[in-house]
Fold these 3 entries.
Entry 1:
Amino acid sequence: MTGPFERIRAHAFHPLQPDRRTFTVDRALGVQGVADPDDRDGRVRSLVLRDLIALASREPAAVVAGLEDGDVNVRCLAALALGIAGADAAVGALERVVVRDPEPIARAHAAIALGELPSAGSVPLLQGRLAEEADADVRHQLELAAAQAASGRGSSDAQRAAFLSLREDAFGRLRAGDVAPDFVLDDTDGRPWRLADGRGRWQALVWIFADWCPVCHREFAELMAARDEFERHGVRVATLEAHDAWRGRLMVGREIQPALWGSRQWFREAYTERVWWPHLLDRAGAVGARYGSEPMTFAVHGEFVNRPTTVIVDPDGVVRCAYAGSFWGDRPSIAQTLEMIVSRDFGFVHPDRLPRPA
C-alpha cells in the first residue's frame, strides 16, 4: 500500500513562485493562483494530512522523520500533522525546522504546529526568531504561534475529528441547481449554526482565508457597513474559515492584534462590536470540501488555504450561485453578492479570473 509520504512525492503539485516562496503559481499560466476548479492538489494534501494525523497519534517518530524529507510538501504536511495530533515528542524537531529549514513555507508550517501543540516551552524561541526571520509571512506565523502557545489553547478534539473524518467521496463542487447539503458548524463563541435553520430565506456563505488576508478584512468591513441592507432584504449571511477556534477568534478580534495588520485602531472595537454575522469554524475545511471551496488548494502568505468561495442558497435550499475563485482576489464583493440576490442575476465572473486550462 502506498504510504502518505509516497503519495505526496508522487503528486505533481503546482509550484511555489520562484522569487516568493510562500505563494503558489499555476503551472500552466505562470501566475499566482490555481485556475482549474477541479484541480486535485487540495484533495491530495487534505487526505494525506488526515492519514499523517492518524499516524502521528500512534507513531509520532514516523511522522517526525518527514521533517527531514527533501520534498517541501512532505515537510510542511508532516509539521501540520504533528501539531494537530498533539505530538509533544516532536517539539525539538519542529523547533529545528523553524530555525534551519531553507524554505520559508516549511518554517511557517513548523511555527503553526508549535502553536497548535501548544508548546509553551517554545514561546521564547518563537519570539526570538521574530527579530531574525527575514520573511514577513514567516514572521507573522511566528507571532501567532507564540501567542497561541502561550495561551495554552492548541488543536481541539473537534479539529482532529474533522480531519480524521475526511473521505475521498466528501470532496465535490456544487453547481447552480444543486440542493445545498445541510451542515452544522460552531461559531467563534461555540454556538452551533445550521444551514437548514435558514430555510425560507436567502443565505450567503463566504469562505475567507485567514487573518493575514487584506481582501478578507475588506469583506468584513463591507459586511459591517452593509448590515442594514442585508437585514432589509432578509438575507442570512455567514463567513467561514478553515481553522480551529483560536485562529477563528483571532480573525474577529478576540485574541491578539498581529503586527501585520498595521492598524492603529484596536480591532476589538471595530470587530467584536460590529461583526453582526456568525463567523463559522469550518475545521479541516470539511464543509468547504463538499461545497467546492477546496481546502489546502494553494499556499498564500506561507499557509495552505482554501479557494475563496461564495455560495448563494435560495429560500428553498437550492444553490443559485457557487463561485469558486481562481486566485486570492477572485470572487464577488459583498456588494455584488447582495446585488445578485436582489436582482436574481447570478452570472458573476470576476474580470481577472484566470482562464481554465484547455
Entry 2:
Amino acid sequence: MPVLDRLTPPPLVAVFDAYGTLFDVHSAVARHAAALGGAAGPFSEAWRAKQLEYTWVRSLAGRYRDFEAVTEDALDAAFALHPAVDPGLRGRLLEAYRVLDPYPEVPEVLGRIRGRGIRTAILSNGTAAMLSDAVAAAGLAAQFDGVLSVDGLGVYKPDPRVYATVLEAFGTARRETLFVSSNRWDVAGAAAFGLACVWVNRSGRPDEYGDLPPLATVATLDDLA
C-alpha cells in the first residue's frame, strides 16, 4: 500500500528535498566518468560529502555562503583530495551540476501525488537560480506549486527556520505537511520540527537517528504514491 494511503491526516502539501531526493547528485560526475576513470566514484562521493560538511559548518559558524559557492568550494576540495583528476574538468562538472538528472520515477510520482489534489513543492539548500535550472532541465516546472530556497534565510538545513518556511508559504499545520528526503539528517531535522516525514533510503543505509524517526521509509519514490 502506498505511503500516502496510510497517512492520517492526509497531507495537504508534499514537500521534497531536491538534491539526492529528486535529482541524482552523482549524475554530474557520471556524465564525465570516462575522463575520471576509476576515480569517478570516490571523487563524486568526496564532492558530495564536502558540500554537506560546508553547509553545516557555515550554518553553525554564522558564515553563510550560498549553495552555488559551497558547491564550488566542495568541488575544489575534491580535486585536492584526488590530485590525479584533471582540474580542467572543473567548469564542465559545475555546468553538469546545474542540470542534474532526475531519478526516473520522479515525473510519474509527482503526477500521481498532484492527481490526489495534494500540492507539491521543493525545499532545498540550493539557490533559486540552481533550482530553476535543475527543474527546467528535467521538464518538471509544471509539477510544483512552489520552489523554496534557504537563500533568503542565510542558513542551511537542518535549522528549524528552514522547515518553517513551508508552513509560511502554504499556510499548513506541521502534521498536514509531508516532507520527503533521501538525506536521513534532513529527515531528522524536519521530524524534530514536527513535520510528517518520509525517508527515501535508496541505498539501504542503517538508521542513525532512532529518536527522530520518519513516519515511513521507502526504497524509491514509487512507494510514496
Entry 3:
Amino acid sequence: MRVPTIKDVAILAGVGIGTVSRVLNNSQQVSPKTRERVLAAIQELGFQPNRVARQLSRGTQIQNIGIILPYVSYYSFVERLRGVQQALRTMNSDYDLVLFDVSHPQHYDEQLAEIITHGSIAGLLIMTLNLSIEQREALDDAGIVYVGVSDRCPADWPCVGIDNVAAAQRAVEYLLQLGHRRIAYVGDVLDDEYHFPTSQDRCEGYRQALEAYGIAPNPDYCRLGAHGRDVAQRLTSELLALPEPPTAIFAMSDIQALGCITAIHETGRRVPDDISVIGFDDIEISHYAGLSTVNQHLQDSGRVAALALLHMLQKTFEPDMLQMPTPELMPRQTTAPYRP
C-alpha cells in the first residue's frame, strides 16, 4: 500500500503543498475554512505529519543534509559532489549526506514533497533544478534551509552559478583568435524535459562570439541532441559529411567533446591538425585526454554551496559566501591555429 504524501493531501483538499505545510506547522496564515479542509484530507488519507517538524518541536537536532539532483551519473555532478564532501571535511561537520536522485520532472515534485514531509533533512542542496514560489514557501515552513547550484541562478533565493553565455563566448573567441572561421557547436537540445538553460546559454555565447567577428552563424554548424558521448559522435559525423565541414568544434561539455574527437579520428582526420575541438567543464578525464576546455570550477561550486548551507545552519551566513571564481580557459592539445 502506497504511503500518502503531502501532495496527495494538497490535491484532495484543493490547495497547494505550501498551504498543507503551513497547516502542519500551525501557521496563522491559513483561514479556518481552509485549515478544516486540509485537516479533513489528512484524516481521510491517514497522512503522517512531517517528521522534521516533530523532531524540531522536541528539540532534536537533525544531522542530515540532503542533495537533490537529476542525472546523478553525469561527470559534472560527480565533481560537484566531491566539492560538497570537501566542505563537510573543512567545517568538521557531523552532518551526513542523503542523496535524492530525480529521474524525471514529475519525480522532482514528488521527491521534494517527500523531503518536506517525511525526510529528516536540516538543509538541502538543489543541483541545477529550480524552485517554485510555493515550493520555497513549503521548505521555509518546514524549517529546511536550502542553497541552489545552477547554470542560471534565480535572484530570489541563495544560489551558486556562473555566466554560461560569457564563458562560452570566451571559448569561441579563443578559436576565432586561432584563425578559425568555420566553427560548429555540438550541444544538448535547447529545451529538454527539465528546461535546463545550459545548452541555450552556451549556444548563445557561441553565436555572440561569431557575430562579434562579423560572422553569421551557419545553421548547418549547430548540431543538437541528447546529452552523451555517443550522440555527440553521431552529430560530429554529420558535420564532417558536409560539403564544407567546420575546422573547429565547440562542444557544450567535455564528454561531448570526447565524442567529437572519436568521430574525427574515425574519418582519418587528426585533432588538432585538421580540426580543433574545445569542450566545457574541465572534468578530471579532460586532463589526461589533453582536452582544451573551459574550467567552470565544478568542485568549487559544490564546496561553496555546501559551505554556505552549513553557515546558514549555524546562523552565520553572509551573501558574499556564494561568490564563485570566474570560469577559466584551459588551452591544451586539442586546439591549434587554423591551417588552410
